[in-house]
């Protein structure tokens, strides 16, 4: 019997999500309404220590509106990592501001505080670290830097639902934090995003910007978007929220098993005091990463992904001349293995055998 393919990511949708969507359909009230309001409250309770949460139609909208709500616009610079999904820098560029690309550190693949410090100019409005792969960026250092330079701190927490530093959740350090609810993220609403903020003015701006600038119907106060989440999506998200803590424990247990048994390649490190939620479990393959990934699939039926093979500063959409050596190295070498909560122990054994067999053959 041939082995079944183990995919790199796998959204888990159960009967609860189906029933919740059906109930909204039966109610006939599909657009932003009571489900969205409940989802915001519950997300805040479960993942944000009670900090306010505003639901939007995607993570990218969340970053874009968060930046606008915090006053970012043309003439400003926002420092972001180059080693991330393009949505991070795109959202800055969409406000009219300029994304300035910083390098990462190679232990956790998050933005390098020392390098960020050298990039601050009189135009710098804020710093936006990404909690890449579910590992928190060094937010205590970034908060100190932002305070000492009088600039804003934002968080791209798209991949880091429930990650924390010394027990404090990501999404509660910045002026705002954004969580993506795209299907391959640690939890989903289909498409969607949640923006956390402790600043009532930013929260009010976010609510206005997502709904054409209206708090009361047809009394538009500012120019805004339609970035509303639907009640259908919120209903899915509410069910997923009841499972996120257990799914995170399962991801962490899967990661612990992989790290204890994989040999011959660099496995993920966790900073002291940090809780990693393993959106991705990322190893490094110094020679021929793409060949290694192809062999994982063709010889062992194990899926994997290179996130991200082209750094943002090298993309056709940005084309910047910067030299970011750690970013370039990571883009060449990283490979993420399946770590999602639906892996069986047989799947985990197969992943370990596949990686160890290939790394030994290459050594
Ligand atoms: C997924 C992701 C986003 C964008 O979220 P969407 O919900 O897909 O719009 C932004 N930043 C990072 C780091 C992401 O992984």
Keywords:
363 residues, alpha/beta, Aspartate Aminotransferase, domain 2, Aspartate Aminotransferase, domain 1, 2 domains, seven-stranded mixed β-sheet, three-stranded antiparallel β-sheet, 39% helix, 13% strand, globular, binds pyridoxal-5'-phosphate
Strand content: 5-15%
Structural class: alpha/beta
Shape: globular
* H and E order: HHEHEHEHEHEEEEEHHHEEHHEH
The CATH topology label of the largest domain is Aspartate Aminotransferase, domain 2
| CATH class identity of the largest domain | Alpha Beta
Cα end-to-end separation: 30 Å
Residues in helix, %: 25-40%
Tell me which ligands are bound. pyridoxal-5'-phosphate
| Strand order of the biggest β-sheet | 1-9-8-5-4-2-3
Assembly context of the chains: single chain
H/I helix tally: 12
Q: Could you list the spans in which at least 5 consecutive residues all have pLDDT below 50?
A: none
Average of pLDDT: 97
Q: Which CATH architecture of the largest domain?
A: 3-Layer(aba) Sandwich
- Rounded Rg: 21 Å
Number of domains: 2
How would you name the CATH homologous superfamily of the largest domain?
Type I PLP-dependent aspartate aminotransferase-like (Major domain)
Protein name: DegT/DnrJ/EryC1/StrS family aminotransferase
GO molecular function: pyridoxal phosphate binding; transaminase activity
Cofactor: pyridoxal 5'-phosphate
InterPro entries: DegT/StrS_aminotransferase, PyrdxlP-dep_Trfase, PyrdxlP-dep_Trfase_major, PyrdxlP-dep_Trfase_small
């Amino acid at each position: 019997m041939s082995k079944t393919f183990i995919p790199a990511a796998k959204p888990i949708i159960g009967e609860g999500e189906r029933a919740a969507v059906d109930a909204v359909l039966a109610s006939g009230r599909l657009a932003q309404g009571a489900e969205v309001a409940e989802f915001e409250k519950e997300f805040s309770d479960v993942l944000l220590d009670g900090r306010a949460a505003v639901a939007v139609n995607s993570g990218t909208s969340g970053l874009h509106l968060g930046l606008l709500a915090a006053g970012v616009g043309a003439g400003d610079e926002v420092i972001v990592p180059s080693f991330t999904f393009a949505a991070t820098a795109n959202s800055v560029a969409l406000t009219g501001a300029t994304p300035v690309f910083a390098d990462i550190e190679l232990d956790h693949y998050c933005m390098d505080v020392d390098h960020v410090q050298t990039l601050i100019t009189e135009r710098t409005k804020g710093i936006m670290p990404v909690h890449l792969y579910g590992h928190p960026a060094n937010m205590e250092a970034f908060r100190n830097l932002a305070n000492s330079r009088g600039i804003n701190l934002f968080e791209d927490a798209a991949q880091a639902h429930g990650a924390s530093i010394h027990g404090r959740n990501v999404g509660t350090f910045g002026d705002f934090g954004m969580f993506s609810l795209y299907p391959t993220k640690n939890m989903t609403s289909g498409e969607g995003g949640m923006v956390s903020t402790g600043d009532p003015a930013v929260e009010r701006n976010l609510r206005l910007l997502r709904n054409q600038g209206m708090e009361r119907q047809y009394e538009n106060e500012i120019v805004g978007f339609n970035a509303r989440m639907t009640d259908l999506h919120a209903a899915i998200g509410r069910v997923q929220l009841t499972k996120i803590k257990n799914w995170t424990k399962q991801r962490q247990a899967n990661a612990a098993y992989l790290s204890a048994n994989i040999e011959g390649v660099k496995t993920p490190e966790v900073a002291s005091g940090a809780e990693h939620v393993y959106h991705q479990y990322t190893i490094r393959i110094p020679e021929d990463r793409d060949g290694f990934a192809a062999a994982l699939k063709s010889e062992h039926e194990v899926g994997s992904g290179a996130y991200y093979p082209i750094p943002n500063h090298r993309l056709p959409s940005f084309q910047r001349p910067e030299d970011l050596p750690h970013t370039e190295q990571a883009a060449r070498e990283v490979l993420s293995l399946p770590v999602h909560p639906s892996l069986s122990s047989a799947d985990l054994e197969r992943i370990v055998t596949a990686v160890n067999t290939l790394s030994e053959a290459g050594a």
